[in-house]
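Sequence only, no structure available. Ideas?
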Amino acid sequence: MDSPEPTAWKDSLSTLQSLIATGDTSKGGHVKIEKCCALILDGGASTNNIGEEDIPAEVRSTISTIYLRALIHLGRYTEVVDYLQKQQQSGGVNVQEEAYALYRLRRYEACRSLCASSLELNEGSTTTNNINRGLMHVYAQTLYRLGETQSADEVYFQLLSSELTDADEREDALANALANRTANYTSGSLLKFGGNTATELWLEMDEAIVEMLSSYGQSDPSNNGDGDKDLLQNYDLAYNLATYLLVSSDARSHSYVRQAKQLLGHAEKSALTILESSQEENVEGETNEEERKAKQNKQQQLAEQEAAPIRANLALANLLLGGEENETAALRAYLTCITKAVKPKNSTGMHANLLAMASNNLALLRDGKESVFDVLKRIPATSALSVSEDVVAKGSKGGNSSGGGGGGAAVVPLVGATPQQVRTALFNRALLLAKMGNVSGCSEALAVLRASLEVAYHGDEVSAAGSNGGGGGAEGSPKSKGKGKKKKNTTADSGGDVRVVVKKDIPTAKPSSEGEAVAWNARANLIESELRRITDAGDGSKPEVIISQAISDIDTAAKRADDDASSVLDYVKSQLFLHGAVVSNKQSKPQPFIDVLGSLPSSVQSCPGTVVTLASLYGALDKDDTSRSVELLSSLGEDVAARLALTEFHMERGQYEDVIEVLESIVEKDADSTTQVEMMTATALLVKALSYTDSERAGDYAERLEIGEDIATLDGEELESMEIPRFAKKASENGGGGGGISSKVRKIIASTGGKRGSNLGERKKKNHDAILRKRAKQRDEYLATLESKGQYDPNKSQTKPDPERWIPKSQRSYNRRGRRGRHKAGAQGGGAGAGMEKDAAKLDVAARVAAAKSSVEESGKPSTANIQVSGSGAVRKGKGGKRR
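Reply:
I predicted one. Tokens follow.
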């Protein structure tokens, strides 16, 4: 391409101003701006024209900023960094553009150093400065990618504490802060806040978060109006908030899980509505039908991409809420999600981490309903593990091959996952391998888990090479190679040999604090103790010694840990105590469990789950004396959820008068402070209790129960006469929403929800006539294809195939040499040729069809089975064929 003729920089500046004034934000517009800026900067630096003045420094600085931002819009981040280094302006006026380019190039360590030094220099200025705010956004995201969760949280706190006038910017910062906490969450982190209160958390105290929970978290999206005023505008913030509530549900009541489910419902509705409106705007005015359809398909694919993670988390909410209906809905969602993702031509563009977590949660849902081997195949695997031939296919103790195969299993890769997701998947894999008795596989999974707890980031060279391709610092593709020096770890292979694992292949899953790392190592020790218990190995430490050492490490870490990590350590310590109680108390007697629950840390003892379990154990210990159980349940408080738990305890023991007393106070007195779901639950329980004592009052309260308006009266005769729906052979490729479910998924759902004893995926064999019809249809389609290519003429008589084409040429009838002497007996004649003729007769389709028709005609004659034959007077033969 010829270089443009030299032009005075003032003329080029006028051209640049006109380009900016057009407001063209397309790629072509940015290309024009970039070329114009480059022409001005290069011409001004090397001008030798007499009388032409140099570009002023302020003008050059402004044009440089425009030039760099045009490069950023075009995705040419390397050129941004190279230009600033060439001009020796690194860390100068354009520090925001340089930091963003380094962030997009995944050079996070360099970006962190640049942001930290620049913010330290500008420490005296306020955070409302545009440059400082932009740098703080990039800095916080960089710390998030580096796995430095607490530091990123502090930056977000400073950013959100300032007065951000732009509401969209504030909501984006809130969404990123929630994602930062969710990505590296460890179970038990919120126990110190009392489980169901958020008054001590700065992020959950934010006005926007509180307002969203009180409005959209309490209402059902299906009951909202269709107006834009009821539509959730920022569905990304709602999605991140709901995800945070679900991930931290271990320390929350079920009310927060229900709120998360409502938020996700609003987020899905909002996303689909907004994308549908944008689709109508893009398609409007398009006259070409093909282009119009292509745009519609593209918009539908975009809608699927936006809705897929929301639906996956809706399935997680159903899984946490429990119940047969919720679990069935979760199963349907996960199967649909996975089936769409593994299609050869996947139109949804699903992210790899979404597929990995959907498969992991599906394994949790199918645990106990499938074999351990099948559940293990669903757990996502990292490249640091030797799956599937080396680990999955190894059977019992000692890693001996089971001979059953399984090496061909499709293992879901653990790519793009957050540290929390990586730790969960590795822990689940080690737990299942221990359950199978696979010593070598479990040891390897534990080794990788422990190694990942020490790695937060692999370095800029590995990350820039594409080895760290996902959010939150997960490991990347096994095929990508970093340029730096390879550090190696060793893990035991399934055969007992030492397998070298490159450190860059170890997933990044370092917890956010030292106390959380101790807690995760204690969980790994718990699995190791159980593995030793199963194998009864004489060498090494005993299981009890391993558990005792883990508890000792937790106590040591608790002495030097801060308040943030103490609750995590209490949570894991309780897990170890409960595991020991289950192992030692094989007969499940109540008293040993009561003693263990009484010795748990105070933060765990105060949890509603612990209190309810302890009350149930006291009730099982002495069924006549329920005073201790009632006292414990009453200590939960006066909120509706606690009183509902108390009524369920009384209901199980037939104490209906006590149930009625509590429920009537909820229904009659606390209607204003009770949610719709809680009110319906309380009313239904009250009707059930009154049905045992006062049927008339039960009928009065039953009338208060609302029946859905969409439930129409069913006509039995109409249901019997209606056509039974069939499964579609192919999924709707372009269908939006949840309609694009393949027949395989629906058959699996139908089989799981059918009669007992039916195997998963079991289907009926096809009819023989249906197979023949299908073959005939395929033949017609094939002949039509040949006819379109000019390779087949239906009007031209076709030569019949040689019926002896199956016989070797030397044995065919028209070969005189091969047929000579065929009438002779023995080896001279009827040998090979006769056998070949019989084989040919079997393979002759036309002859077989004719024989079948003749047999049908013969069968149409009257039967002679019942005709009696009169005796002829001849001597009858006996059994041996001799005459008597």
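The two ends are 115 Å apart (CA to CA).
Hope that gets you unstuck.
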